[in-house]
Structures are given as structure tokens and as C-alpha cells.
Amino acid sequence: MMNLKPRSIMILATFALLLPSSLQAVAQDAPATWSETDTTRIVKETQKALSGLTNYGVFDDLHFAIQGKTLILKGYASRPTLKSSAENVTKGIAGVESVDNQIEVLPNSPNDDRIRAAVYNRIYTNAVLRKYNANAGRSFRGFSVARMAGGITVDPPIGFHAIHIIVKNGNVILRGAVLNEMDSSIAQIQANATPGVFSVENELGLESAAKSAK
Length: 214
Known about the structure:
Blueprint: E1 11-13, H1 21-29, H2 36-51, E2 61-67, E3 70-77, H3 80-90, E4 98-101, E5 104-105, H4 110-124, H5 145-150, E6 163-168, E7 171-178, H6 181-192, E8 199-206, H7 207-213
Parallel strand pairs: 1-2, 3-4, 3-5, 7-8
Antiparallel strand pairs: 2-3, 6-7
Helix pairs in contact: 4-6
């Protein structure tokens, strides 16, 4: 059995040492952040809150950063309701003084919805990649054309998917984590071969790299 862990929600850290010298004084004067114990707790609670959103699916990607005692939400939402839901569940976490919601709401586009369904089919029915699909390799081929062209965003496949498919004006970003470089390459090839796709940006992490780094 594979032990795949969701990598869709990632943590970005900004360190004062990386700031230009002109900005270091501002960073030094900034309010202190949480203690190490509180930071660990808040990170875990934020991950749990975001991953537990019922309207967070394979066509969305959420991650967050910490600045002082502010939680910065980032990523892409295929529906406006997801952006507001993410803010609502995180602003109530004990210790979080404010939430800076920078999640980008993707365009409401029937063509992008068609591409989402097509890329999903090409990736998750592939013989090598179907293991990452909570729906055991089932596709949208049995669904109506109308749903594929305008209903996938509001009614996405349910269950955990290791590869998230972000579509914006025909451009695709692959986010999440796979086991190895070969699977990452196959996912990119499958997305690139989808009719109507202009470009594919592969941002998939590797489980093998994460294990070797431990």
C-alpha cells in the first residue's frame, strides 16, 4: 500500500535574512510571531481546516504562509465560495490575529471547465496514474456534454486526488505530489496532449524527494 499524504496544502515561510537591507528594519520592528508550540498547533489546525472544506476539490489548490501573527491564504479557487470558506474557517483559529486572503478565484469559463474534465480524464484514467485517483480510475466519459462544459466546477469528482488540476484561460497548472519523477512527467505529458490546452506548468512535488530529505 502506498502512503500518499496530501501535498496540496503547502506552507511557505519568509525569513528576514532574505529581505533586502532596506527592509530589514521593518522586519525587525514587526510584532513577534507565535511561540514554536503555538506555530506548530496553528499550522496543523490550518491544514486540517482547509483540507476539510467540503467545496475544496481536485480543481482547486490552497496553501498558506505566516507573517507575524497573520495567516496569508494563497492558491486558486474554481468557485468564489471556496475563497470565502477558506477565510471563514481559518480566522477563528486561536492565536490568528488576522487573515490576508490572497486566494485567486479562477474565471467562470465553460471552455476551462471542458479542459478540466478532459485533463482529468487523461491523467486519472492513465494506467500508471490511476493509482492517484480516489475514484479508482473512473472518468467523466459517461457524463453529459453539458456537464463537462459547464458543470464540472460546481460538481467536481469527490475524494482525495494527489494531482490537482488548475485551469485558467486554457493554461494548466499541476499541483500536489506524486511518488516519483516518472509519474510527474507522465502527468505533464497527458495534460499537454489535451486538446485546447495552451500551456502546462508542472509544480508537482515528489514523495521520493521528501523521503530522502528526512
